[in-house]
Sequence to fold (352 residues):
Amino acid sequence: MAVVYYTPIDSKTSINDIQKISYQLLNKIIEKEEIELETYIPLKVHFGEKGNYTYIKPEYYMGIINFLKDRNIKSSYIETSVLYGGNRNKSDLHLQTALDHGFNQLPIIFADGEQGEKYAEIEINKKHFKSCKIGYEFLKYNQLIVISHFKGHTFAGFGGAIKQLSMGHASKGGKLAMHMGIKPKIINRKCKQCKKCLLQCNENAITIGKKSFIDLNKCVGCGACVSSCPHKAITITTVKGVLNAIFQGKNFGEKIVEYAFAAQLHKRNIYINYAVNITKGCDCEPRKMKPVISDFGILISTDPVAIDKACYDLSKEKGKTFKGLHQLDYAEKIGLGSQKYNLIEILNNNVD
Ligand code: SF4
Ligand code: SF4
Fold:
């Protein structure tokens, strides 16, 4: 059974305490599970889209950075560029966004080159993909600390370690392969023509008017518009209808799991999930979002499925049941990890 170490926090927990907890949770798992550390361990992070305010800020990572420094382990931030337009779709823009968001503590590596051209095909021979396009630079490292923000996600239901491994490690071609088949549609009778969705679409795919519509030739299926509509007028569908949409949604969950499987193959990763600022949408969405439940903790594990399942279960206890359970079932089925876990709670003042 997988082990997940967990320290509860709340919105009043200070940044100093969050850094201390992160440091000591890392120490705890390494001691307890006798993890051998590499001499260079990049931190897989998400820098947050410009205009998003709920991504995990770099101050949260200082406990992890200090932990590595204290052991003379070299590190960097590592990330890939996104599929859609905006401020993270090329390495130069993405770097500027990262620096604007305060990520200046470590060198920054863009694993898939300037705009997604550098990747390796990782063979997995699974249901949806025979091979996956993973950012080339990831291949250089045997061990990463994969840091994830646990929160909701328009298509996946929720996002945590699995999402960070999959979408976060895939090159643009890989991201496109996962999104393929998912397209949003505007329900005209619900559309109030408020134009909030226009601000989210970096592809200029949305036209709002008497008859609002999305140009499927321009849309890359990023999903940002869906959760931005206050009137629930944008729905996930495909050209073939609602049944197909459900099918594609399920497929999307399975596709991200297969990419996650490819990304962690032959690695000895450590996963840290921050369950704070738990919003309905993800950190790629360039807008302010309110949390749907209160902050509940920092979790660490060597199993990406167990840590996500633990976050899912704790969210449910807090009153928020996310969609997307199928991704965990499928992840367990293909051998990415285990949904059975032993949750070891380490109180802040007991961490030593
Ligand atoms: S956000 Fe929703 S209601 Fe507003 S214009 Fe877009 S589709 Fe219509
Ligand atoms: S999903 Fe929505 S926001 Fe994203 S590209 Fe398509 S229309 Fe634009």
